[in-house]
């Protein structure tokens, strides 16, 4: 299908703006595809169903419950209600359209029922954890997630979620451990590297600060090595190296010498400036990461003020 | 011997062309397509684990492999040692096994194990799908068309090709350019792959639906354990592999590396 839906795969999870754009096209897409599905060959229909799923998620996020329901029905029609993934999506839909706390509790009960019948239903297991989290029961969510990860230790997504949950509970070391596990599964993902760097940076306020900060700098550097214009990586590198310099951690017990740290900081600032400048030009394209841009600009201003 | 340079001519009925060459090719293509769809139809998706413990038994091995492969790009010495200890002790005392009490006993006979039986059935079905149509078509050709010379290649070939192109025709003097019906069958058998690719899409196109249905379920996707294999043995193997691992970390010196590689001169 040419035209408006061509860029559907570029939608990332946290990007609300493009999700909104997509959801606004939902009626058109659903209309258009009604006629053309049956005739196209199998790879195209596989693509089509992947797109329907994306559309379903986007519609739910933007409140277009009716289109979401249409999407869900079509998926249901193709794969049947007993497909695990469809069950997960249906659960998601029910959660999103739940009116009150009571309805959510009912969803939870339904998940428990499903799981008692088929204990390794991964989408439902994950939905259950997410629901527990949104019901404000983080410790239950954590124990559920640990149970899931005990059975499926090769799921990077789940490890990342666990890290996030731990961090929200203030359990820094556990969060770091979980992210390291996620990295063991996907060792070249620069975003997780930089996320780990952030966690280490946050944890460095208590405990063995110089050690943690040193590792933080390492992970930020690694994320830059893997993706050489990663804004968050440079931002974190600037913060971490600044803090190391301010606290005079340079040079002690296996840490970097002061000169290298200063060079790192200067390099990170320089690149930050370049990235901010180049991305300000085509603002629309980077609309999804606007908050990161604002933070980066603010950091640059602060650094300039200090120097001035 | 064939006279060098002189053109061999054989008077052929042009009907041979229509009544042998085309039928063989068409039948070959049709059976190919039929076989493809039959395979798709009879293909059973890999069985997903039914309990959490079973899933853990399968994936713990992958976790060990992941640790072994990727530790060097993530972990520092301390956390690597910790994980290594955990995995090695886990593997050694069977903590990841489905039921640790069964440890050390000989694996169940794959004939009695329903899961193993199923996997073997799958293999058997695949082989049958190849064997039966081939036997049928070859005997069909042998019965009806054996010994026919049906086509002349427009280019000369060396004598070595004789056995390939003229099976079923026992004539020493016949030029290599002539192709017998049985050979045409063999040529079709080997050479139609690209035609099927053209008709059915790339090889796995028809399987894509099945893949998609299994998606988002990493537990079902991979099963490193073959049926009848003893996971405990694999675990012990993996434990040994982990044991001998030396720690090194590519994060050491990464700061200097990025300064050298990415930073402009003068910083």
TrEMBL record, chain A:
Q: Say if the entry is tagged with keyword Lyase.
A: no
Q: Where in or outside the cell is it found?
A: Endoplasmic reticulum membrane
Do the record's keywords include DNA-binding? Answer: no
Chain positions of TPR repeats: 156-189
Keyword list (alphabetical) reads: Endoplasmic reticulum, Membrane, TPR repeat
Example of a GO cellular component annotation carried by this entry: EMC complex
Q: Which domain of life is it from?
A: Eukaryota
How does the UniProt record describe the way this protein sits in the membrane? Peripheral membrane protein
Recorded coiled-coil stretches:
none
Q: What does the record give as the function of this protein?
A: Part of the endoplasmic reticulum membrane protein complex (EMC) that enables the energy-independent insertion into endoplasmic reticulum membranes of newly synthesized membrane proteins.
Q: What protein family does this chain belong to?
A: Belongs to the EMC2 family.
Cite the record's note on assembly: Component of the ER membrane protein complex (EMC).
Protein name, UniProt field = ER membrane protein complex subunit 2
Identify the species of origin.
Penicillium egyptiacum
> Which lineage ranks, top first, belong to the organism behind this chain?
Eukaryota, Fungi, Dikarya, Ascomycota, Pezizomycotina
TrEMBL record, chain B:
Q: What does this protein do?
A: The EMC seems to be required for efficient folding of proteins in the endoplasmic reticulum (ER).
Name of the protein this chain belongs to: ER membrane protein complex subunit 3
TM spans (from-to):
16-38, 130-151, 182-201
Where in or outside the cell?
Membrane
* Keywords, ordered alphabetically: Membrane, Transmembrane, Transmembrane helix
Q: What is the topology of this protein in the membrane according to its UniProt annotation?
A: Multi-pass membrane protein
Assigned protein family: Belongs to the EMC3 family.
A Gene Ontology cellular-component term: EMC complex
Q: Which SMART domains match?
A: DUF106
Coiled-coil segments on the chain, per record: none
Q: Name one Pfam family in it.
A: EMC3_TMCO1
Top-level taxonomic group: Eukaryota
Choose any GO biological process term that the UniProt entry carries and state it.
Answer: protein folding in endoplasmic reticulum
Source species, please?
Penicillium egyptiacum
